[in-house]
Amino acid sequence: MSGTPEETRGAAEQWRVTIAEAEATPLPEGERSAPVLAHGGMLVRFYAPCGTDEQSPHTRDELYVVARGSGAFVNGEERHPFGEGDVLFVPAGVEHRFEDFTEDFATWVFFYGPEGGENPAQGRTQEQP
Question: What angle do CA 39, 43, 48 make, to 5 degrees?
Fold first, then answer.
């Protein structure tokens, strides 16, 4: 689950994906999550680990949006509880994992930005929906 631009070519370029559609997407061989949507440099994967979360740091920044379930999220040196609807950010290269999660746990994973992550010192915009 690295979220590299090469993976975006394997994900469907579309505008909407449901949890049911994501769950029905076959996992690529050797992968723990399925690419379900891509646009430009953004890749969305659906991740529903069983038992333990054995992921390693990624080369791009990522956002998790918890679709269902709860547990604890380790992000670097910090550990926080999480639940359905929570949004979790992980900078590129940071150790992270889900722990003590419920059996129904599933999350959307959004990979974006350049390899090595975005520069946090760059100006922020105040975009609104």
Answer: 140
